[in-house]
Every structure is written in structure tokens, then in C-alpha cells.
Design goal:
The complex is a heterodimer of chains A (about 220) and B (about 350).
Chain A lengths: L6 E5 L4 H12 L3 E6 L2 H13 L3 E6 L7 H13 L4 E4 L17 H29 L2 E6 L12 H21 L4 E6 L7 H6 L11 H14 L2
Parallel strand pairs in A: 1-2, 1-4, 2-3, 4-5, 5-6
Helix pairs in contact in A: 1-2, 1-7, 3-4, 4-5
Chain B lengths: L7 H5 L5 E6 L4 E6 L3 H4 L5 E5 L2 E2 L3 E6 L2 E10 L5 E6 L22 E3 L5 E7 L6 E6 L3 H11 L25 E3 L11 H9 L3 E7 L9 H6 L4 E5 L1 H12 L4 E4 L1 H13 L7 E5 L14 E5 L6 H7 L6 H11 L10 E4 L2
Parallel strand pairs in B: 1-17, 3-12, 3-14, 4-11, 14-16
Antiparallel strand pairs in B: 1-2, 5-6, 5-8, 6-7, 7-10, 8-9, 9-10, 12-13, 13-15, 16-17
């Protein structure tokens, strides 16, 4: 798909993969609405994109909060018009060091589902009606190999990503005829703050840089019709 | 603790509403359900919807040290906003019982949240409640601040406050509407997919639906105020194609009628794409040039929308419709049942 001029929402855009995606999309000429809880870090990403001549707007919101979906969708609609693409990148592992399921609290499990699954569900629901009416739209779900491989201690995260992928498959079955497509992308293991907190012993030289992960996601997006 | 509100899930889990089908050509009134809509349309027809999302248009704040509620009634081309100001109290009191706001003059500051302020630019001669304001927040931060501090306009007939997600149509896009363009609320994606499968085309426009009541009789009588709209080229092309195929143009909501008919009149009789503002008032005797049918809510004789409905209800049909709505116990209001006037 053509990214120039496309109205694109990226969640979790203040650092790591989300920030790298935003900067690359900014260079490609997309009109961006960037979402994060961290307003300060998000403001820096927006400034960097604008300094390079791109268009980006910040929306400070927590995707796990029920009221965030209509706030993000509405602000985005006002600033860049109906969304062509939404990239659900915001994610949480839960408290680190990671715990086995038997030691995971209800609250931590629920928070992982709220951020990684319910948030994308609600924001997608707020956007797909307009996409279906216009007969076009793309929803990108950033996933992980933890969705299919049962890594010990990655329980809440792995379950939420497995559910997210299935959510995408069902949405796709329901809405592909209306022109809305769903892409699930595993960008690979990256040297991000989230990864360092989860696996502090990992050798950074064996990990992808966030920019490389972003390139993988965007190549899938560009290939989409 | 999270506020107890009606959220999007309330809409999604709602039982599909009833539909009163009025066929002015056959002279029939038929009780059915909104799920029957696809069967009431013909393959060559065009359904035109208003994709305006509902704004968090209600802001609580203060002016001159007095509590106020500001309801945004529409953005002006110069970036100022038309707004209606209420005095102390909230939505639980019907608008007509709300006290008036403190006397406002140009230059007065309205405090609407931490760091979120607007200044009165002018006051309407029509009503002291109707003002034009300019927000003193940089444009880039205005929308974030509005969505942080604003709430959707609430209705005194509801038991619980409505979350913003609850007052959106299923296909809402740009936030232009002060209140929900509610005729489209029952059009779930599954229903629209069945409409499409029938061969009916769908098209959209954006129309800034205004406030439904202001608490001031003189101002209420002047509603709807001029409202802006934007009609995309694809919708104009779909209207032309539908006419060529002998299909009918069915407007979803009175806002769509206003936009299509207003745009046609301002262009001298031809529907053209683009943005505009319409002050068109539609009532008995009005002859639509574009629209052949209307899907709307249920509107009693006491509502301003009934006047608009009358344009599509010839002769004594207005009275028959009213009697049928009462005896059939149809639900009015934003979350009520629907009417399809189509022959």
C-alpha cells in the first residue's frame, strides 16, 4: 500500500519498536497519530519527525483504559481524518522479573490482557466501521513468537499475544469482504527496554535493532494491497 | 474508582430496535424490525450515511467565578466555536429547567479544565446563552485537551451518564457532531453487510449535527443552526449513478437530507462535491430534489425533527404516523426505534 499521505495510528510509539516505526513512517510521508502513556518521550518522537518534515501528533493515552479507544479514534479523526491504518504496537510483559503462571496475580494477568488484547480490540472496534464503509483499511497487530511457543514465565504475555493473533484471524474472516485487512507481524527479538527488562542476560549483539524490526513490519505493510 | 457509565458494550449488546416502515405511495404503515431493512431496499438503491463522530461537546467549568456548562454547537471556518452556555447544574436537570449562565461579554474567560480556557468572542442577539468562543490552547493541543476534559452531551431521560463510545454510530470517523447523528446508530456492520449483499450501495458524507436543545425557547425555535458539511466526490458520483439505474436515494438521518438538499440548492440545482454550510430548514411543503426516502428515529409532533419528517409524509400521513407511533408504543429519543419513509 502507498504510505505517503496515509492516516496512520501507532500505539506504544514513545520508544523501542513503536518509535522506530513512527520515524520510518514519518519519512515515508504518512500522517501520524502517535499514542503512548509517556507524554514526554512521545513529545520527543513527534519533534524528531517534524524536524525531518513529517507530520505527527501526540495523543497521551493508556490503551488499556476502556475510555481510551474513543479518545484516540476521535482525536485522530480530527487531526488526520479517517484512519487508513492502525498499528497496535503497545504491549506489556507485566512485572519483571517475569514469574511462572502459578505465581502470577489476577491483577497482573488482567493488566497484560487489558493492554495487549482488550485495548487493541476496543480501538479496532472504534475504527473498523469507518474502514468498512470506505471499503479499505489495514489493522496491524504486533505479535511475538511467545504467541505460539510456550516460554516458561512468559505466561500472561504469551496468552495475550496468542489471543491477539486469533482476534486478528476472526476480525479478518468477518471484515475482509468489506475491504479491511488484518496483518499479524512478529518483528523478531529486538534490543528494546522491554526485552532488556525481561531477559537482562541476553547478548544485545544477537538481537535486532528496533529499526530492523520496524523495517520488517513496514515491508509487510507496503506489500499489502 | 472508574465512573459508572454506559459504554460501547451497551450499544453492542442492545436488542435490535423496531422499525416503522411508512410507504407514502401505497399509503401503508408497517411494523417491522430494523433487521428487515435490507429487504425493504431494492438492489439499485443507495443508502447515504453521515459519518460524523460525536464530539465530547460538553465541558464543565466556570465563568466570572460562577459554574457553567459549555456545549459546543459547531466549529466556524475561522477556528472559533459556536457554543451554548448553561448555568449551574448538570445533565440530570432537563435543559429547559437549567438556570441561565452568568451574563457573558466579549473578552470574558471560560475556565474549562487545568490549562484549558476559552475566551468569549461574541454573544448572539438571538439568546444570551449562544456565544462564539475562541480556545486559548494551541491547535495542536486543542483536540487532546478537548478529549481529556470534555464529555458527550448527556440526556436527562437516561439513568446513567453515557460514555463517548456509547454515542458513536458504528462507522463514525471525523468528530464533527455536537450530538450523535442517531439515525445511524442501529446500522451495525453485520446489517450494513447484508444491505450490501442485497446490491444496495453505501455512500457517506460528513455533516456537523448540532445540539438538540438549549433550554431557551427562542433559541430552540431557531434550531437547527447553520451546520457545515462535506460531500465527497464518490458520494456525488454514487447519487448520479443511482439515478441513472432508476434507484432511490435513501438518507440515513435528517442531517444527510440537510447536507444533500442544502448543497444542491446552494449549487443552483446540481449536487456538487465539497464543503459548505447550510441553513436550509426543511418542513411541510418542502420538495426534496435529491432524497427519495429517509431512515430516521421516531419523532413525536412536539419535536423539531417532526417538522422535517413532515416533508416526507404527504397529506394526512403526519397524523396517521403520530397515532401509529403512540398506539404502537414506539420509543423516541436518541436510543429509540426507527422510521423508514420510503415508497
Amino acid at each position: 500500500m502507498e504510505l505517503r499521505g496515509a492516516a496512520i495510528i501507532v500505539t506504544g510509539a514513545s520508544r523501542g519498536l513503536g518509535a522506530a516505526l513512527a520515524e520510518e513512517l514519518g519519512r515515508a510521508g504518512a500522517r501520524l497519530v502517535l499514542v503512548s502513556r509517556d507524554g514526554e518521550a512521545l513529545g520527543s518522537v513527534v519533534e524528531r519527525i517534524r524536524a525531518q518534515g513529517g507530520e505527527a501528533h501526540a495523543v497521551v493515552a493508556d490503551v488499556s483504559a476502556p475510555e481510551s479507544a474513543s479518545r484516540i479514534a476521535g482525536t485522530s479523526g480530527a487531526l488526520v481524518g479517517p484512519a487508513d491504518v492502525v498499528i497496535h504496537n503497545a504491549g506489556t510483559l507485566g512485572p519483571v522479573p517475569l514469574s511462572p503462571l502459578a505465581d502470577t496475580s489476577d491483577a497482573d494477568f488482567e493488566q497484560a490482557l487489558a493492554t495487549n488484547l482488550l485495548g487493541p480490540f476496543r480501538l479496532t472496534r472504534a475504527l473498523v466501521g469507518s474502514m468498512a464503509l470506505r471499503g479499505r483499511g489495514t489493522v496491524v497487530l504486533v505479535s511475538s513468537d511467545a504467541a505460539t511457543t510456550p516460554y516458561a514465565t512468559w505466561g500472561a504475555y504469551g496468552v495475550s499475544k496468542a489471543a491477539l493473533e486469533h482476534l486478528g484471524r476472526i476480525w479478518d474472516t468477518e471484515l475482509s469482504a468489506a475491504g479491511v485487512r488484518f496483518l499479524t507481524v512478529d518483528p523478531g527479538e529486538m534490543d528494546t527496554r522491554m526485552h532488556r527488562e525481561a531477559v537482562p542476560e541476553a547478548d544485545p549483539s544477537t538481537l535486532l535493532r528496533p529499526e530492523e524490526g520496524a523495517a520488517r513490519v513496514l515491508s509487510k505493510l507496503r506489500e499489502a494491497p | 474508582m472508574r465512573d459508572v457509565v454506559q459504554d460501547a458494550a451497551t450499544t453492542v449488546s442492545e436488542t435490535p430496535g423496531r422499525l416503522l416502515h411508512v410507504d407514502p405511495l401505497r399509503g401503508t404503515l408497517t411494523d417491522t424490525r430494523i433487521d428487515s431493512l435490507p429487504e425493504l431496499l431494492r438492489p439499485a438503491d443507495l443508502l447515504v450515511v453521515n459519518d460524523a463522530a460525536t464530539l465530547p461537546a460538553s465541558l464543565q467549568g466556570s465563568a466570572e467565578g460562577e459554574p457553567i456548562e459549555l456545549r459546543l454547537a459547531g466549529e466556524e471556518p475561522d477556528g472559533t466555536w459556536r457554543a451554548v452556555v448553561f448555568g449551574a447544574g448538570d445533565w440530570r436537570t432537563p435543559t429547559e429547567s437549567r438556570p441561565p449562565p452568568p451574563a457573558l461579554s466579549p473578552g470574558d474567560v471560560l475556565r474549562l479544565g487545568p490549562g484549558f480556557r476559552a475566551r468569549v468572542v461574541s454573544r448572539s442577539e438571538l439568546s444570551a446563552r449562544l456565544v462564539r468562543v475562541r480556545f486559548e490552547t494551541p491547535p495542536d493541543r486543542f483536540w487532546a485537551a478537548l478529549y481529556l476534559h470534555g464529555r458527550p452531551v448527556q440526556y436527562a431521560y437516561e439513568a446513567l451518564p453515557l460514555a463517548l463510545a456509547r454515542v458513536q454510530t458504528p462507522y463514525a470517523a471525523r468528530p464533527w457532531a455536537s450530538e450523535m447523528p442517531s439515525a445511524g446508530r442501529p446500522l451495525r456492520l453485520e446489517l450494513l453487510a447484508r444491505v450490501r449483499e442485497r446490491g444496495v450501495r453505501l455512500a457517506s458524507l460528513t455533516h456537523a449535527a448540532g445540539l438538540s436543545s438549549t433550554g431557551d425557547a427562542a433559541l430552540d425555535a431557531a434550531l437547527p443552526l447553520p451546520e457545515r458539511y462535506e460531500i465527497p466526490p464518490a458520494t456525488v458520483a454514487a447519487v448520479a449513478e443511482t439515478r441513472r439505474r432508476g434507484g432511490r436515494i435513501v438518507a440515513v438521518g435528517t442531517t444527510v437530507v440537510r447536507a444533500l438538499e442544502g448543497a444542491t440548492r446552494s449549487a443552483g440545482g446540481d449536487l456538487r462535491p465539497g464543503a459548505g454550510v447550510t441553513d436550509l430548514r426543511i418542513g411541510r411543503g418542502f420538495e426534496p430534489r435529491v432524497v427519495n426516502g429517509l431512515l430516521s428515529g421516531i419523532h413525536g409532533r412536539d419535536s423539531s425533527h417532526f417538522e422535517l419528517l413532515s416533508a416526507f409524509l404527504p397529506g394526512a400521513f403526519g397524523l396517521l404516523y403520530t397515532l401509529h407511533v403512540i398506539t404502537g408504543r414506539y420509543r423516541g429519543h436518541e436510543f429509540g426505534d426507527s422510521t423508514l419513509i420510503l415508497g
